[in-house]
Amino acid sequence: MKIPHRSFMFLAAIITVSFVACSGNKSSSNGVRLQGAGASFPAPLYQKWFKSYSAAHNGVQIDYQSVGSGSGVKSVIDKTVDFGASDAAMTPEDMAKVDGGVQLLPMTAGCIVLTYNLKGVTGLKLSRAAYAGIFLGKVKKWNDPLIAKENPGVSLPDEPVNVVVRADGSGTTFVFTKHLSAISPAFAQSPGVNTLPNWPVGTRSKGNEGVTASVMMTPGAIGYIEYGYAKSQNLPMAILENKSGNFVAPTTESAQAALGTAQFPDNLIAWVPDSDAKDAYPIATYTWIICYKQYHDKAKFQVIQDLLTYCVTDGQKESEALGYIPLPAGVADKSKAAIQNITLVPNAG
Amino acid sequence: MAEAKAITQPPTGLQRASDSIFRGLCYSFAWLSVLVVIFIVLRIAFAAAPAVRQYGLGFLTTRTWDPNRDQFGILPEIWGTLYTSLLALVIGGAFGVAAAVFLSEGYLGGFVFSLLKVFHLEFHGLWGKLPERVEDILKNLIELLAAIPSVVYGLWGYFVVIPLIRPLCNWLHLKMGWFAPFGTDLSGPGVLPAVLVLSIMILPTITAISRQALVSVPPKLRMAAYGLGATQWETILAVILPTAARGILGGILLAFGRALGETMALAMLVGNANLISLSLFSPANTLAALLANTFPEAHPKEIGVLMYAALVLLGITLVVNMVGAFILQRASAGVEGGK
Hints:
The structure holds two protein chains of two kinds. Chain A is of the alpha/beta class.
């Protein structure tokens, strides 16, 4: 009987200690804790923002889970988070599901680049017909006249174009297919815009890193990834033809030129599937943080307003270093003004 | 009576109580695990019901997965799941059983023994144990293959296997493209890399169970075979393997189950393209990979369809297990008379 007795005492001791530890933990951080979830594309930037904000404000803790845009929207509807984030914004039907309403705020932007694996070829130029054809499976060889025409003097191999697309549903794919649908009626008809469309060609890999690995391991491969990721990995990026017929390389400036042409309605959801600015890089997009219009907790409300104001003002300076496109000044102002739409509704049931 | 110290005594009330509590716990945990399975199946079936009503059996026989048109069919995934698993089973089975024979017949030990004999160390206190040790190490190494996480296999396949086999595959396609299994070229991920990695993943299961079955073949059978003048080769093929067939088949079945459900490595290696092709070099898709890739960002309408796909995967594993059990019964009925 002695041994069980001792182990029981030990167990009791453990329980007591952990209980004390827990309660001690609770009382020491009587600050504010915000939970966010959503898009994975802006996650590195958000995490950096939230970290520097928490460091500057004692007792504020902000957790962001990069679970994907779709899950972010779902969590906002289910009210399991304090804010969400999405690359694909939010559909009006989904917005109607949240009583009290939601406020979407453009936070940062990015562009999507085509990375490729061709030995000895740098600065590959692709016309609109060429890259739409590649992702429709109509341009099958690298020495296709459609590609060769824009790349005089470049020795393109007589080898198959190995298309790599995303296997998982993603906001990146949504934006990319939106652009392809805007420039190619055939693409708009099938496969069309989706986070995971029925691609007619290619092998599929998961995530930016999966597509990148696949492209780098496969001679003659081409795939679409986010600009920030491509930049950080120093990957080759194709120069694309824009709406006005100019060939533009993806840079912060060319992406901002495209983003600047967006016309924002009151809900601040705007797309630039195909910018008509002269020096615009064609595939650029905003990404949004989704807030509730009404918060019931005063502390949370204050932190969220203050945090978002920081993000669209001082926070913007940090975005370029991480490969994101800072919001054009006019858009940042609109976002900042819209933060005032978030209100405190105390004592709500 | 009070002084008589009996060796035995009736159980006290406390012992009785703890006894019945323990029994009750065992029962309830056993039933709980059964209930969990039933609950999972019912839950999936319930979530899949709207999709089953809407798409019916056409879901199993159509090839398009297009959320934009609400067309969903998983024939390519069913084909891919069975094709990759069966091919992996053929390769993994052949190598696995061969490895099990190698380990159980003492080939390696014999070799080390004869090596020691050259140095007259075969009965040495320390060195004499070497043959057994070497066999043990090899056995553990093969079993260690099972401890490697799936994602590591996936990465290895991606960065080692694919570049390694690509030149050979593309050469085969060039020279023998008329032969359906070589009908396309291997760009990157595809059926063959997936099959090769999968066969290595299931190897430890097959080897461990087959070895156990081979070791437990009664020695008298072997002696009798030798006594009748059979060579070692004949003994293995005609006596030992058939006697151990039940265990070997059991191992292969377990391995098949694992291959069907394997997700991570396949999602990385198979190419995830909804194609039906006999070609070993073409990308394909499997049910498990489809589920893993599509679920996190699925639209509400897609979730029902994915649940339907999960139900199909569940059904396939069930059928495989039932067919396997039937084969096992037939096989063992024939063999065990010899015991």
